[in-house]
Amino acid sequence: MSGTRAAIRYAKAVLALAQDQNAAEAVNNDMSLIANTVNGSKELQDVLSSPVISAEVKKSALLAVFPNTTKNTLDLINTLITNNRLDIIGAVASKYVVIYNESIGNQTATVTTAVELSGDLETKVLQKVKELTGKAVTVKNIVDETILGGFILRVGDIQYDASIANKLNKLKREFTLN
Q1: Hey, what domains does the chain have and what are their CATH numbers?
Q2: What is the pLDDT of residues 91-104, one digit of tens each?
Q3: How far apart (Å, rounded) are the C-alpha atoms in residues 172 and 89?
Q4: Residue 176, Cβ neighbours under 10 Å: how many?
C-alpha cells in the first residue's frame, strides 16, 4: 500500500515538472513504455527489486532497455535510485500515465465481457461513455468468462455491473434472505 502511495507522489511530481517544461507528452510516451515493459517482464521486476544487485547495475540495465528517454525520465530514475525506491518504477510509470490522461481529459473505460467486444459494440460503448462523462474515452476490453454474459463497465471510480453472474448472485441473496 505504501508503495502505491509513493508511486502516486512520484508520478504527480514528475508530471508537474514535465508540464512546467512542456514535456508532459514526451514523458508520457516514456512512462507508457516503461509501465508496459516492467509490468510485462517478471525478470526485469526481479532485477529491480533484488537487494543483491547494486543500484548502478540496475540503472545500467534500465538505460540499456530504455536508451532514448527524456531528461525528466532519467531524473526520475536517478531520484528513485537515490531514495532506494527503484523497485516501484513500474507503478510510478503506470500512475503517471493515468494522471496524465486525466489531466488532458482522457479516461479509460474498462469493459469486462464474457466474449471479445466486436467493433460495433465497442463504438456504442465509446459513444455512451462519452455521453455520460463528457470526456474522451478509450475502451479496454477484458474477457472474463466467469461473468457468463452481459458486461461490467468501469470508468474512473464508477462501476456498472450488468453481468449475468451478478444478477444470479442477487437472486441467490434474495432467496436466502426470505
Answers
A1: 2-102 (1.10.520.20), 106-177 (no CATH)
A2: 999 999 989 988 88
A3: 43
A4: 7
